[in-house]
Write a structure and sequence with these properties.
It is built from nine helices and four strands. It is an alpha+beta fold.
Length: about 180
């Protein structure tokens, strides 16, 4: 079933677990870039993207004229550079099969377990698709890097491969 489990899993802007607390199978973690090398790998990938011309970004589908989207694309916490690389590390491999214990309607603005709601149980994550996620988070403007195309780009760049056909990645981005 899952090979990495957290209290809460977030897929966008990049897969991670708030609080960096998770349980993981050794067979999965052994596939990851070593933590001491991950920040450099992530920053190399992003600096190469940031230094591409507008035409080069258009060719790979990452061009945007929207100022908000451009700001997202440069935010360290969204793309996993600087100190944020460690938050992106655990879920960075294309073979990740995440699960979490939060309810699908979970929102940080409300208590985790409101009165009358049963405590959540572990289940495969993410519990929403990309369309629902964007609607709930009011993310009408989202840089193309934070789409399926961007996720696949990261996997290819960091690990030289993409997720298997039955991965949550395809289901998450293509549903809705």
């Amino acid at each position: 079933m899952c090979n990495i489990c957290a209290a809460h899993f977030i897929a966008v802007p990049s897969p991670f677990a708030p609080g960096n607390m998770f349980s993981v199978e050794c067979s999965y973690v052994n596939k990851l870039i070593p933590p001491k090398d991950f920040q450099a790998a992530q920053e190399t990938m992003m600096y190469e993207l940031w230094n591409k011309t507008k035409k080069e970004l258009e060719q790979i589908g990452f061009a945007s004229e929207n100022k908000l989207e451009e700001e997202q694309f440069l935010r360290a916490e969204w793309v996993g550079t600087k100190r944020y690389a460690s938050e992106h590390w655990a879920f960075s491999h294309p073979s990740a099969r995440p699960c979490d214990t939060t309810l699908a309607e979970f929102n940080y603005n409300y208590p985790r377990h409101p009165r009358g709601v049963a405590a959540p149980k572990r289940g495969m994550a993410p519990k929403q698709n990309f369309t629902t996620y964007r609607t709930k988070r009011r993310l009408a403007d989202l840089h193309p890097f934070f789409s399926l195309k961007g996720a696949l780009y990261k996997f290819r760049n960091l690990y030289g491969t993409v997720p298997p056909n039955n991965s949550w990645v395809y289901t998450f981005y293509n549903e809705g």
